[in-house]
Design brief:
alpha/beta, single chain, 16% strand, 502 residues
Length: 502
């Protein structure tokens, strides 16, 4: 394929004209992608990469039915929603049919950030309250109102980052959190933390407008809230006059397999007051949506302030949204998420039994995290090792990312057409890389498990140790580094400061 610029020229022009805070994957040697199909991406040399991280191309890159729907509608009309058009109402009808009955009113916007920003406006208008409870390590978007409620971002700004109207609840993490997998009722314990936050806020004369949470935390480290947690939190929040916002931007549209929406994992007795959507909704086309109840929508309208969005709900976007829903149903992508997701998790759990570097495997459907640790007992995050693995996988033409508070979670959220063969290929490569790391650092024992690492060296023909080579690699990935701590341990490892949200 002929390109306008060479890779070096593209990189130089990017440095010249694109803001320096706009980062690229694999900064030392970024990939120039020129086309994609299904679960594969191709660089300018025709090299094929298996995409394990792109939950935006939900039904597969360059899906022919999505492209056809977009082109067909573009040839006819694209205008704003102040004109009547069947695509808008047809899509709203189809979309709300996937949700509980009371979630029936749609506001179409253009990105997950826009959706979450509007959700906050709806929540604050509903009762006139202002304060927001968010989860630790949460990320909800890049606009100012959302940076304010995203500890994943504002914690990087120091003590001045958290605003007075923001209250941070512990992430309901049963692997690393205060209440773990052996707790008799972790859901209630974590929910009680939210109750205490509400009580303290009310003592100080503050009023809760909303509790907002990703149905499963993505940037927070692939955290699956224990069943019953959302119900109890919603009870406390409603009692305080607030609403529950479920952020489905990362995990919605059938990714969890057994349900269309992540919040439905909590049970049929839980229904949020507002649901936000983005990323997969348009398979790469910029569109998103807020769905809420009629009561909340009418309270929003009662302000007398009209809401209008120039591009939200335009005929082309709605045609694309319909095509995505059709592809999910026609190709049984929810079923595929169950089958391939279960297989992937099974393979990874076998690796957990084999490799002491794997502390936890968690996930549902095609949303899976692998928590790498240096020490099984203390669960010390293996940050540098995780970075080493994703860079080595890239060399094998496999794209995977690492995230979480300590950037030690290998993060799977591939296009929904991901196959069992793809899953086996990735896990086999991870197995080889973990084996090499563990042999180099002496963290393996005769039975394949160990909680301590005694340094062993394997001399290569050149006289250098394999351990030295790998240590050098994991200590220098990503350049700029900072030191990071958590409440359960202190570790002087280097942790890259700059994060790229995926």
């Amino acid at each position: 394929m002929s390109e306008l610029y060479s890779k070096a020229e593209t990189l130089e022009l990017r440095r010249k004209h694109i803001g320096p805070s706009c980062k690229v994957f694999f900064a030392k040697d970024p990939i120039k992608i020129v086309r994609a199909q299904g679960q594969y991406m191709y660089d300018e040399n025709g090299e094929k990469y298996l995409d394990c991280i792109n939950n935006v191309a939900h039904v597969g890159h360059s899906h022919p039915d999505v492209i056809k729907a977009a082109v067909k509608q573009m040839e006819l009309l694209n205008t704003n929603s102040r004109f009547l058009h069947d695509n808008l109402v047809q899509y709203a009808k189809r979309l709300t049919a996937t949700l509980p009955e009371k979630l029936s009113i749609c506001y179409f916007v253009n990105s997950g950030s826009e959706a979450n920003d509007l959700a906050l406006r709806l929540a604050r208008q509903y009762r006139g309250h202002q304060d927001v409870i968010t989860l630790d390590h949460a990320y909800h978007g890049h606009v100012s109102s959302l940076i304010d409620i995203s500890p994943y971002k504002f914690n990087q700004l120091g003590k001045e980052g958290k605003k007075e109207f923001v209250h941070v609840a512990p992430s309901p993490d049963i692997y690393r959190g205060e209440y773990r997998e052996d707790h008799p009722d972790a859901a209630s314990a974590y929910a009680d933390d939210v109750k205490k936050i509400i009580e303290e806020a009310e003592k100080n004369g503050r009023k809760i407008a909303a509790f907002i949470a990703e149905s499963m935390q993505s940037c927070g480290g692939q955290i699956i809230p224990p069943a019953g947690y959302f119900q109890k939190v919603a009870e406390y929040v409603h009692k305080a006059g607030g609403v529950f916002i479920a952020d489905e931007v990362q995990v919605g549209f059938g990714r969890v397999g057994k349900h269309f929406w992540g919040f439905q994992l909590q049970g049929k007795d839980f229904v949020p007051d507002i649901v936000t959507m983005g990323k997969p909704i348009g398979n790469g086309h910029p569109m998103s949506c807020v769905v809420t109840t009629r009561e909340i929508a009418e309270a929003f309208g009662a302000s007398g302030l009209e809401y209008f969005n120039t591009f939200g709900g335009n005929p082309v976007s709605c045609a694309i949204g319909l095509a995505v829903l059709n592809a999910i149903e026609k190709e049984d992508l929810q079923g595929n998420a169950i089958r391939v997701g279960n297989y992937l998790t099974e393979l990874l759990n076998k690796q957990k039994e084999k490799h002491p570097l794997i502390g936890d495997v968690r996930g549902i459907g095609l949303f899976v995290g692998v928590d790498l640790v240096k020490d099984q007992l203390r669960r010390t995050p293996a940050t540098a090792e995780a970075q080493h693995i994703i860079y080595k996988l890239k060399e094998q033409r496999i794209l995977l990312s690492a995230d979480g508070p300590h950037r030690n979670i290998l993060k799977f959220k591939p296009p929904m057409c991901f196959t069992m063969e793809d899953a086996k290929l990735v896990v086999d490569q991870i197995d080889e890389l973990l084996t090499a790391l563990e042999e180099a650092t002496g963290s393996r024992t005769g039975n394949g498990r160990s909680t301590t690492a005694q340094h062993k060296r394997k001399m290569t023909n050149e006289g250098n140790s394999q351990s030295d080579c790998i240590s050098e690699s994991i200590n220098h990935i990503n350049g700029t580094a900072c030191r990071q701590k958590n409440g359960l341990y202190t570790d002087n490892r280097a942790v890259p400061c700059k994060r790229i949200r995926t």
